[in-house]
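help with this record:
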Amino acid sequence: MCVKMVVSGHVAYFLLVCTILTSVNARIPGVYTGGQWETAHATFYGGSDASGTMGGACGYGNLYSQGYGVNTAALSTALFNNGLSCGACFEIKCVNDPQWCHPGSPSIFITATNFCPPNFAQPSDNGGWCNPPRTHFDLAMPMFLKIAEYRAGIVPVSYRR
């Protein structure tokens, strides 16, 4: 799981497990390596307290009691990898949309805890955000609001593992 600590007003990222094992293997779920930036899109779900994100395809149950809190996301088919990405840590930032991205492009760290199913009744660029082969993060609402404005709905992002 990715953990964030606030120290004297400055945000210092302490990535428990995510950085301890960075030299071991970038493909181990839960290991954050700060690899190459890639492009995707992000939306949000679950309400302002993220209560609607509990449970999920990865089987973690109550994300608060398991220590994940609201720092979570559901992944599209392309990212979910048949569940092999459960527990993976990602760094995400909103990019290339000054109308909706927060100034300075702050990044967030999330853990994959759920699957964002395809919606083949909708086109991939208008409602079918999680349709293959699209790379997409459906973030817990509090995490989305750290990188973008609520009214944006969907934003372009850069991410890395």
